[in-house]
User: What shape does this take?
Amino acid sequence: MSENLERRRFLKCLGASSLILAPLGCSSVKEESDANKPHYVMVFDQNKCTGCGECKDACNLANNLPAGKSRLLMEQQSGGVVGEVCPHCGKTECDCERKYVRVSCQQCKNAPCVTVCPTGAAHRDEKTGIVTMDAAKCAGCKYCIGACPYDARFINKETDVADNCDFCLHSKLAIGELPACVQQCRYDALIFGDANDPDSYVSKLLRVKDSVRMKPGFGTEPSLRYIPIVKLGV
Amino acid sequence: MDGSIEFTMGLSDGIAWPWPIAVYLFFAGISGGALATALFVRFYKNQTENTPFYKAAALISLVTISLGMLCLVLDLTNPLFFWRILVYYNFNSVMSIGVIALSFYIPLVAIIALLALEEEVRQYPQLKMLLPVIEKLKNFRRPMEISVLVLALSVCAYTGFLISALVRFPIINTSVLPALFIASGMSGGAASAKMLAVSMFKEDLHSPDMKLLHGAEWPIMFSEALFIFMIAMSLFTGNEGMQSAFAAFHTGTWSWVFWLGVIGIGFAGPLLLNFATSHKFSHSAKAFYASGLCAVSGMMCLRMFILYAGQQYGI
Assistant: This one.
């Protein structure tokens, strides 16, 4: 008898809870699908970059940065300048080809700076998905600078707030132009566009070229891609 | 192909968090540790009166957390931006959660200190207007003490979680850091509160409270040493970045801070003063203060080592 009652109660509860839980499961808040949103990416082609540094000047100008400061750096990794030692082989005279790497915000899809920022000043722009700054909210705690796995953030000495490369979101993209560095580059070493648009030049490029991301082990999923110089042949 | 391209430059100038943050971690650790120890003793022994140790711990806790906040604010690029942290919140951010904890903790510590120092307040006629407030607050003393105990331990742990979120640095990005900071906060906090209890509130050097604390000191210190050993071992046996960070323990200025400051002063100091000296000396006031100062300096050295050596060895 009591066993029967227990079973009945168990079945009742099961039915009731499934009735309650089922609609919850159906109506659960879904992650907003990324399909309709743009995913802006930049590709740096190391084979084409000559290290002229004009991208840095263009960045400084476009984003009203303090004199001599830009949101990107060029790291020379090989090839001697006359009178100086080659950073790759250490000799003053060598046959190393000049090689440069763009150092700037990697525009992570999973951005540690956005996670750690206590005020939400470092945030992802809703429309474009680009990681950018709200200078009016930044308290200058430098948490984002320490948390960035790429050391790609800095304090703007004029405004006292943190800064990062946001593909010129507020300066150039806002008026429908390409980022200043991309416009400036005379060697087509920088390509910018929406990777979610299958017809964009950048999507087509990424389909045919091998590109890599920096420090993928951090799980940050950067949107900046690099086409490295590779040795030809086997 | 991943890994075929790398860069070593960075856009920030030097280390993001310099010494004021280490001092802040130190003060927050002392504050939380001292109060947590005092409350543990109070609950364990069912004390209802304001013992000298309790008074000292409450006072130290309030002073150190205030100084810590000062360090924190002065380290902002512009201290006038401080209000922004209090107004805007991001619940994914460890710092933001810490700010919420601190904004409950600090007022509660102030109340606890006020209640603990009731007799002292009574001695000053100028502070008479505080007495009715104390009477009112007394009714909520127990729940406040319990919540402040939880918050004190949270604040200690928070200082660890805060920096362990910096993924680039293998020494800092370890899971035992919050536990290490709780243990070291308790030993440093208890040591400083003990010294103040004896010097300012005339506690007897060999009172039962002091004896209890002396007994608790060694297990806490042992767990601290264990946590440090765990960090060192995980780096030693870890991946490439961790192995290169292990160098912090044997090369450079910060290895000196570690071996002389953390191990020499922080661990060997109190141990030698208590066990390697004559019974008469090890029970003297001199040894008591020297050993307390050793514990506190060792704690400061640990924070400096973790923060500076940590940020020096990035991946």
The longest helix of chain B spans residues 208-236. Residues 19-312 of chain B form a domain with the Formate dehydrogenase/DMSO reductase fold fold (CATH 1.20.1630.10). The mean pLDDT of chain B is 93. Chain B has 13 helices and no strands.
